[in-house]
């Protein structure tokens, strides 16, 4: 009989632990539901955090759990790094933080898989041995017989190897995404040219071959480490050739990878919390990746193959650039007059607004226009910025009412009755070449059709092209006026001029 107190026996019972897991899963799902809108997002995050805390407690209650000192130390170190980083990050740097934190998750999964292999790798699958050999759990029926020794089930080995490969790809790919977004490495595609796909394919085959050999019974830690290194090279090789324009898709894709690798680790460890949480992240990330790719009229394989986002500007279309005529510039005073006498204004935010941290200035402009009975809304493209929902997060931070935000399809229905569209730092997502020019690299990509507005004002630092590397035909439209300068300063100047009208 056990000498443990009855309360301890109850807390460590399998039934109680599974009840805790079920509660955690319910909170995960409810928290995810809360993220559907900015008014409930904070509460949703807190609900999911409580669920994760319960899942951690449930895991630690398992009898024979590891070294508590190391666990506490790990939690303390993670909190010491993560909390200040999350609280102090600027909203403009949120995409790279998302990429970095996602990579940490993938790296943790890969390390867990490695540790599990060190403990159980020699017992993957089954082995055939002769009498006189190491019998393990085999049963000897007669002298000279051969027996099968049962070890770790094959499915555990498969999931462990899968988690190691995908987790390593996610970690290193996320690091490259972070480097591009942080401008530590160039944002343009970096590749081996036409040989890039051959390199990727060779690395993938090598990683899979090592994994298959391990599952089949190879008990070499050197082989496992080699598999991790090859997967790391694959993660770098996949993300380096992807241009900045495709970065929102890359982030959501790597997020899905991390979720799937975590779910695989949960299967290998028989941990329900990892299985459910990983599948939620993997499924939502996969759906989001598909939505992002659809919004750009791109296939996920073509993005992985290396997207647009080259380093130099190319002719965007016939009729663009030097053949398009002159660009009409304007002043803050003229823009203020145009906005003051409009009935309906649509603001189109882009990464330029994020870089200038102009969201609060934009909110003040909106208030000034609303005081003049001008109807104001915001048109949000799914891939504006550097991560999914980037513009929504920035505008929510500035207390822009959620009901003023319009998704792309809804916004496009309203442009024809819009007096003025004010484009703030958005480039490729407003380029009519996506509709008008079959030779354009962005042809077919759904855009915000601001060219249908009665007039357009574009706030931009210069005429430099966006990440797609092409000129924007919108800038040469006779009804478009360019206000050159920093987005925050330009918007503030317009607001000041409005106050004097």
Note down, in words, how this protein is organized.
With 501 residues, the chain is of the alpha/beta class. Helices cover 55% and strands 8% of the residues. It has helices spanning 6-11, 14-34, 38-60, 68-88, 94-120, 154-181, 196-215, 221-239, 247-269, 272-295, 300-304, 332-340, 351-356, 359-371, 390-397, 408-412, 433-436, 487-499; strands at 126-130, 146-150, 344-349, 375-380, 405-407, 420-424, 455-460, 480-484. It has a 6-stranded parallel beta sheet with strand order 5-4-3-6-7-8. It has a two-stranded antiparallel ribbon with strand order 1-2. Helix 6 (154-181) runs antiparallel to helix 7, helix 6 runs parallel beside helix 8 and helix 7 packs antiparallel against helix 8 (221-239). The relative contact order is 0.09.
Spell out the blueprint of helices and strands.
Elements: H1 6-11, H2 14-34, H3 38-60, H4 68-88, H5 94-120, E1 126-130, E2 146-150, H6 154-181, H7 196-215, H8 221-239, H9 247-269, H10 272-295, H11 300-304, H12 332-340, E3 344-349, H13 351-356, H14 359-371, E4 375-380, H15 390-397, E5 405-407, H16 408-412, E6 420-424, H17 433-436, E7 455-460, E8 480-484, H18 487-499
Parallel strand pairs: 3-4, 3-6, 4-5, 6-7, 7-8
Antiparallel strand pairs: 1-2
Helix pairs in contact: 2-3, 2-10, 5-6, 5-8, 5-9, 6-7, 6-8, 6-9, 7-8, 9-10, 12-18, 14-18
């Amino acid at each position: 009989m056990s000498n443990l107190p009855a309360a301890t026996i109850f807390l460590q019972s399998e039934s109680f632990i599974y009840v805790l897991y079920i509660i955690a899963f319910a909170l995960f799902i409810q928290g995810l539901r809360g993220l559907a809108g900015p008014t409930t997002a904070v509460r949703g995050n807190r609900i999911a955090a409580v669920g994760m805390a319960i899942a951690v407690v449930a895991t630690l209650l398992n009898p024979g759990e590891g070294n508590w000192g190391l666990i506490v130390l790990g939690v303390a170190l993670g909190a010491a790094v993560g909390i200040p980083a999350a609280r102090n990050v600027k909203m403009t740097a949120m995409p790279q933080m998302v990429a970095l934190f996602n990579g940490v998750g993938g790296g943790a999964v890969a390390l867990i898989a490695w540790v599990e292999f060190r403990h159980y790798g020699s017992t993957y699958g089954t082995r055939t041995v002769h009498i006189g050999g190491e019998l393990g759990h085999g049963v000897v029926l007669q002298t000279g017989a051969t027996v099968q020794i049962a070890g770790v089930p094959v499915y555990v080995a498969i999931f462990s190897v899968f988690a190691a490969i995908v987790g390593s790809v996610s970690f290193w790919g996320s690091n490259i995404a972070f480097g591009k977004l942080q401008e530590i490495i160039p944002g343009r595609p970096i590749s081996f040219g036409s040989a890039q796909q051959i390199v990727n394919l060779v690395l993938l085959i090598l990683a899979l071959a090592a994994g298959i050999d391990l599952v089949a019974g190879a008990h070499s830690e050197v082989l496992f480490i080699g598999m991790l290194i090859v997967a790391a090279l694959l993660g770098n090789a996949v993300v380096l050739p992807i241009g900045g324009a495709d970065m929102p898709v890359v982030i959501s894709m790597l997020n899905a990878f991390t979720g799937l690798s975590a779910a695989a680790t949960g299967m290998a460890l028989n941990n329900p919390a990892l299985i459910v949480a990983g599948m939620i992240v993997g499924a939502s990330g996969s759906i989001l990746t598909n939505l992002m790719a659809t919004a750009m009229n791109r296939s996920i394989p073509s993005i992985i193959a290396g997207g647009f986002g080259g380093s130099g500007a190319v002719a965007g279309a016939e009729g663009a650039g030097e053949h398009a005529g002159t660009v009409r510039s304007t002043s803050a005073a003229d823009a203020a007059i145009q906005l003051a006498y409009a009935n309906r204004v649509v603001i189109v935010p882009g990464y330029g607004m994020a870089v200038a941290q102009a969201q609060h200035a934009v909110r003040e402009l909106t208030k000034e226009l609303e005081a003049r009975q001008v109807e104001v809304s915001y048109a949000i493209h799914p891939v504006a910025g550097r991560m999914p929902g980037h513009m929504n997060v920035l505008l929510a931070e500035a207390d822009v009412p959620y009901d003023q935000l319009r998704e792309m399809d809804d916004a496009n229905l309203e442009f024809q009755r819009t007096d003025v569209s004010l484009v703030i730092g958005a480039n490729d997502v407003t380029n009519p070449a996506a509709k008008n020019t079959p030779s354009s690299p962005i042809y077919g990509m759904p855009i915000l059709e601001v060219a249908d507005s009665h007039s357009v004002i574009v706030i931009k630092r210069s005429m430099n092209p966006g990440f797609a590397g092409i000129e924007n035909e919108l800038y040469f439209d006779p009804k478009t006026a360019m206000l050159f300068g920093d987005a925050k300063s330009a918007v503030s100047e317009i607001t000041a001029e409005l106050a004097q009208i």
